[in-house]
Amino acid sequence: xxxxxxxxxxxxxxxxxxxxxxxxxxxxxxxxxxxxxxxxxxxxxxxxxxxxxxxxxxxxxxxxxxxxxxxxxxxxxxxxxxxxxxxxxxxxxxxxxxxxxxxxxxxxxxxxxxxxxxxxxxxxxxxxxxxxxxxxxxxxxxxxxxxxxxxxxxxxxxxxxxxxxxxxxxxxxxxxxxxxxxxxxxxxxxxxxxxxxxxxxxxxxxxxxxxxxxxxxxxxxxxxxxxxxxxxxxxxxxxxxxxxxxxxxxxxxxxxxxxxxxxxxxxxxxxxxxxxxxxxxxxx
Amino acid sequence: xxxxxxxxxxxxxxxxxxxxxxxxxxxxxxxxxxxxxxxxxxxxxxxxxxxxxxxxxxxxxxxxxxxxxxxxxxxxxxxxxxxxxxxxxxxxxxxxxxxxxxxxxxxxxxxxxxxxxxxxxxxxxxxxxxxxxxxxxxxxxxxxxxxxxxxxxxxxxxxxxxxxxxxxxxxxxxxxxxxxxxxxxxxxxxxxxxxxxxxxxxxxxxxxxxxxxxxxxxxxxxxxxxxxxxxxxxxxxxxxxxxxxxxxxxxxxxxxxxxxxxxxxxxxxxxxxxxxxxxxxxxxxxxxxxxxxxxxxxxxxxxxxxxxxxxxxxxxxxxxxxxxxxxxxxxxxxxxxxxxxxxxxxxx
Lengths: 284, 348
Fold this sequence. Notes:
Radius of gyration of chain A: 19 Å
Helix content of chain A: over 70%
Strand content of chain A: under 5%
Structural class of chain A: mainly alpha
Distance between the termini of chain A: 42 Å
Oligomer: heterodimer
Shape of chain A: globular
């Protein structure tokens, strides 16, 4: 019984953490159809900002907020300078945002160096349920992820802003005629996605070691989570995709090594992509 | 009747003009640049010795790798973020063959295994994806996953690949029928072997480009649905292109393994695969010579500048990549090659 509970906790936490990391990508991909290959660098940037701030005596929660805002600002600059000119060419944005990844990763190496860094766990200790347990900080991050998912869902499906965004996605010209300020919408979505990446990077920083390339693997994982979940369904799709990719890795890791489990899950995700290109919850 | 008219037409045309036209067609800026490049590469060992002769073959092999991406991207419009994976597959294929099979023919066998394995892996994955019409960003994602997977396998299967520590491979000796053997031990022999391979690869790709196969690929790039409507099995064409690209990339990887003497899992990793994308984008995706020069020039500069200004050079490269994508879609060499055409257009 304990074993099942502990496995359930592990799967749940892997799912929610991956969902947290994927959310920014899903938002930008799902709403403005930009494949943000710079997502990984944004995660790393968030983690490094949090590291510097906590190192200078800023309390961890405030550091997370500041890192979120900081990465959001970087996203804003990038959007204004480059991305906004290329919304009509989705494939070019993929390449350009990969360039963003290269530039930001090198800037991180110049500013912070290439050595591994760590942030001390801000909430040590574990919650235990019988024999099973979960790290207190990990639980808090899962909670934040849940709140973020629900919040995004609420904004998109229960507010007028969300209505306008969805109208713009469905029929851009009609939305423009009805008075939606499309360029500002696109910008807001992109900046929100960047900020979410910063938030995720800062939050996962105490759980994993921080290095300039830390975003690459997360990028691939969150990509698969978003695509396997489904393009149209931003919140539900991300959650389902994360459950399959994150939870699947945990399950396979029971019978093989962690890295190998990851590989198997990627291969399975390619299969899923082949037979259902719109994703499990996606619609054409 | 019509053929007769054409033949009289040719006869009445002044021979000198015909010669000039034929010459002009051959002496395009692209062919001239390629000719200059290969002549220079041929004479490099006469002019300098030592480190340059040692290191240049590795860069030429990177150039071949870049050309395999030109085939996919420039002709077929498919961007692969996983070319490094095939390079690594070829490198490990040669290394493992040399370890397991100890005969005189094993270097040849190793190259064969590399070529076959690279082409087979690319062909299977390609057909699997293209038959379901996976394209654009989704294809990028899958190729990204391929390179991650190859990296993980190379890293974790230590008994086969040497794992994290990599694999040492000696310079091989190719046995040629007739009792002659071609040892790659000297840098000079290696240089000219790789030179010949690069030249052959370039000519092969150019022939492929001019063939009907190449034209169908261009058709797919411009409008896949229309090409399919014309009756071409586009999935098959794309699969073939991917298989050729994977096979040649693996062959280049195998030669790289024996040349460099060392294979590490990072060859298959995402970072190396994406630097291939940078070479080709900066050089020019539409021209094989663009990719070739892009790879050689950027690798040489990286080598020089990595010791002087390591981080700033990589930063510069990233900025250059963004600038090229934003302003020079054709890449630096590609834009350069259009200058004569542009001038001619102004004059005429």
